[in-house]
Amino acid sequence: MNAYVNGLQACAFSTVSRAETYILNTRFERPTLVIDTQAVARNYAALSQGLGRARVHFAVKANPAPEILKTLADAGSNFDAASRAEIEMCLAAGADASRISFGNTVKRASDIAWAHGAGITHFAADSEEELEKLALHAPGAQVYIRLIVGSLQADWPLSRKFGCALEKAPALFAYAVSLGLVPVGLSFHVGSQTRRAEMWTETLDQVAEVWHGLKAQGFAPSLLNIGGGFPAFYGQEVDAPQDYAAAVMRLIHARFGDIESIMAEPGRGLVADAGAIAAEVLLVSRKSDNDLHRWVYLDIGKFSGLAETMDEAIRYQFITERDHEPTGACILAGPSCDSADVLYEKQPVQLPLGLQSGDRIVIRNCGAYTSTYSSVGFNGFPPLDVIAI
Amino acid sequence: MNAYVNGLQACAFSTVSRAETYILNTRFERPTLVIDTQAVARNYAALSQGLGRARVHFAVKANPAPEILKTLADAGSNFDAASRAEIEMCLAAGADASRISFGNTVKRASDIAWAHGAGITHFAADSEEELEKLALHAPGAQVYIRLIVGSLQADWPLSRKFGCALEKAPALFAYAVSLGLVPVGLSFHVGSQTRRAEMWTETLDQVAEVWHGLKAQGFAPSLLNIGGGFPAFYGQEVDAPQDYAAAVMRLIHARFGDIESIMAEPGRGLVADAGAIAAEVLLVSRKSDNDLHRWVYLDIGKFSGLAETMDEAIRYQFITERDHEPTGACILAGPSCDSADVLYEKQPVQLPLGLQSGDRIVIRNCGAYTSTYSSVGFNGFPPLDVIAI
User: Fold this and answer.
1) Are A331 and A254 in contact (CB under 8 A)?
2) Cβ-defined contact of B288 to A129 (cutoff 8 Å)
3) Where are the beta strands (DSSP E) in A202-356?
4) Contact, B270 vs B36, CB < 8 A?
5) How far is B125 from A69, CA to CA, in rounded Å?
6) Phi, psi at B122, each rounded to 5°
7) Using an 8 Å Cβ cutoff, are B3 and B317 in contact?
8) Residue pair B163/B146 in contact by the 8 Å Cβ criterion
9) How close, in Å, is residue A15 to chain B by CA atoms?
10) What is the pLDDT of residue A9?
11) What is the mean pLDDT of chain B?
12) Please, are residues A221 and A184 in contact by the beta-carbon 8 Å criterion?
């Protein structure tokens, strides 16, 4: 794991990644995400090794760049898709249907039918109506039931949007059987950016209780889908992916014993640190002569790739060409005429005092949830460009 | 103004718009925004009449659909553009450069040079560095200085992202003159969705003080750009556009006297109620048997067009084909595998209890800030489709 902490200030004596080096040596016409496929392959190898016999299903939504999907397909990865289009992208990258799960618990009926026809066998569900849609459009499919778990320790505890209450799982297993489906197991999501393996303990305890309860009721769950949550580095220290994954697997073994099949759905953990964004400073200003902070406006913002700065949740790190100069606090904002397009204001960012319009800036560890979040053309700005190296 | 209050329940006895009627009579393969250009033309006529001799510059960012731009260009509207691409769209719609202002206070230097070459003469600025960029790339340009105003009464008070402090305006006027630019006036934004004309009073008082102060210091401001803020109907009653605009103009006249040139930048007010979205219910579920609310999942969400539901700010109204049935509260969510993609949860929505997967749903008054906010392909979902009628 890279040891660059506190971004800018530490930059002079920290590792500059291959993607970042590429950006520093290139001129771009517009904001561009540079993805290092070698780093993706390296992350996959490390995580796979740590996960042991658990299968990796890359969460395609994190970054569906064809070069990433191809790299992972070649490396032997499986895929978790959120939609028909994502399944089509995985197939195009060379993964056959047996390696792709349809993990969205909210699927369009016609997409279920299409996926079933394409040979997809594993589907997620968390409700009666979704099981009915599956029974009708993918008869006999293998289904894993997603649970709501209390993920109190993640940086981003997930809402109740996905999953059913723990006590509802047996009823959904029974209902699936009655509909002719095969309920193979359980899935859950510990919460995005779960920084340390110990943070999984409480969630795994909850899921194990449901798992063993199902067995006691005569069901035979064989698949545990542990979802994502594998962290990327955004300024707060995280464990090396291999150690992290191995520690999670030990926690699982202690609670579940021997499980026939375990799958994991890393997204961010595979691609975040493989990408960096080339951006430019458009303006530096002060609102009044006695303004406490400068305002720094970039040519990329919340609506053109940096959606995860919402509520200042993900705090990106930066490289500029003035990192040897003295720094000061500033409010960082995007280029659009939208007052919500402010990246960091509550907790300002330290950037060089000499920064000015036209300066280049590298946004680090941007490989996940940037390119596809980008709007089609808000304010007339084109979507984030993507280059794979 | 339509009298439909409380959306659904009132729907049976309220006006269904032309766009909504079109949706109810058509089948769509994916979420689609239907724009009624006749409604846009009607809104333009009403607002223009209310605004009297003030020129309307349509805020292109609200909806740059070519059919909207063409309708407004033909009707004689001017345009406010946020970027080079938006200027190009206006030119393509038949508006010549003299009718287009470049209103973003954060512009790329190369875009300023391009716009200057294309014949654009009016630019916004709120800082020294932006004036320097303008002097270098658009020498002699006419500049209006944007002010930060206290817009305490708008539904969405804008942040400090745009504008300079009131007391800084004279210094920026003087600096513009020293750079060979022509500082022609002031601009401000009262705040999005300012529902009643009286809410402008405090802001106009502030701006008038700066205006008269500039005159006292020997400057000759001739252009007042009153920005946008013209409201659309989202469930809370608003004044008819013509009456509203006329009332604002009276407030201006009382404070500024005779002004050579007034421009207004309505966006939402011209297009919001001209559009409706055709959507579909993908799933209705309960998280547990004793769950207080149903969850209703649509095939459109925060990342595919309904970004303005952020913090539940804009509350859209709905039409379903079950509006004669009993209703109940539900949490409304989008289709993506993102836990942030929940539209209304804190304040649930009333929808028919019989609603189920496959049901069609019309989202009303969606003509503004939907299509271009839509992501390029998050979760593999395509951007919002747009049809003009």
Assistant:
1) no
2) no
3) 223-225, 261-264, 275-285, 294-298, 318-320, 327-333, 342-352
4) no
5) 44
6) -115, 125
7) no
8) yes
9) 31
10) 38
11) 91
12) yes
The alpha-carbon gap from B15 to the nearest alpha carbon of chain A, in Å, equals 31
- Dump the DSSP string for A283-322: EEE-SSTT-SSEEEEES--TTTT-GGGGGG-S---EEETT
Summarised one tens digit per residue, pLDDT across range A202-252 is 999 999 999 999 999 999 999 999 998 888 766 666 778 888 889 999 999
Structural tokens at position A171 = 């009823």
Ordered alpha helix ranges (H), B278-386: none
What's the predicted TM-score (pTM) here? 0.91
Q: Which residue, chain included where needed, has tokens 């007052």?
A: A339
Confidence of residue B122 (pLDDT cuts 50, 70, 90): very high
> Does A106 sit within 8 Å of B288, measured CB to CB?
no
Q: Which token pair is A315?
A: 């705090």
Both tokens of A341, joined, read 């397009």
Q: How far is CA B100 from the centre of its chain?
A: 17
- The answer to whether A206 and A252 are in contact (CB under 8 A) is no
Type of residue numbered A78: N
* pLDDT, tens digit (0-9, with 9 covering 90-100), for B248-281: 999 999 999 989 999 999 999 999 999 999 999 9
- Distance of alpha carbon B66 from alpha carbon B281, whole angstroms: 29
Cα B292 versus chain centre, distance: 35
A333 and B161 within 8 Å at the Cβ level: the answer is yes
- Closest CA of chain A from B17, distance in Å: 26
Are B355 and B289 in contact, with CB atoms under 8 Å apart? Answer: no
Per DSSP (E only), the strands in chain A are 32-35, 55-59, 78-81, 100-102, 122-125, 142-146, 182-187, 223-225, 261-264, 275-285, 294-298, 318-320, 327-333, 342-352, 360-363, 385-388
On whether the CB atoms of residues B173 and B183 are closer than 8 A, the answer is yes
| Separation of alpha carbons A171 and A199, rounded Å | 29
The pLDDT of residue B373 is above 90: no
CA–CA distances in Å: residue B13 to residues A218, A340, B4, B328: 54, 37, 8, 19
Highest mean pLDDT among A233-247, A332-346, B2-16 belongs to A332-346
Give A88's contacts (C-beta < 8 A, 6+ positions apart). Answer: B380
Which residue among B130, B167, B310 places its CB closest to the CB of A283? B130
Query: Position of tokens 């006249």?
Result: B253
Cβ atoms B299, A108 nearer than 8 A: yes
Interface contact flag, B61 A378, Cβ < 8 Å? yes
Average pLDDT over residues B301-307: 92
Q: Which residues of chain A neighbour B283 with C-beta distances below 8 Å?
A: 105-107, 127, 129-130, 133
> Distance (Å, rounded) from C-alpha A301 to C-alpha B321?
39
CB B334 within 8 A of CB B301: yes
CA B139 to chain centroid: 31
- Which positions 325-354 of B are in contact with A (Cβ < 8 Å)? 333, 335-342, 345
| Chain B interface includes A133 (CB < 8 A) | yes
ipTM of the complex: 0.91
Q: Which residues pair with B186 in a beta bridge?
A: B145, B224
Average pLDDT over residues A86-115: 97
What is the phi/psi pair of residue A292, to 5°? -70, -45
| pLDDT band, very low/low/confident/very high, at B115 (cuts 50, 70, 90) | very high
Q: What would the two tokens of residue A172 be? A: 């959904």
Chain B interface mutation, best of A194, A283, A341, A386, highest count of B Cβ atoms under 10 Å: A283
Give the whole-angstrom CA distance, residue A224 versus residue A208: 10
Contacts of B13 (CB under 8 A, 6+ apart): none
B223, B308, B271: which is closest to B38 by C-alpha? Answer: B271
Tracing tokens 């009624």 back to the chain, one arrives at B36
Please state, as a whole number, how many other Cβ atoms lie within 10 Å of the Cβ of residue B38: 13
Look at A375 and B375 and tell me if their CB atoms are within 8 Å. Answer: yes
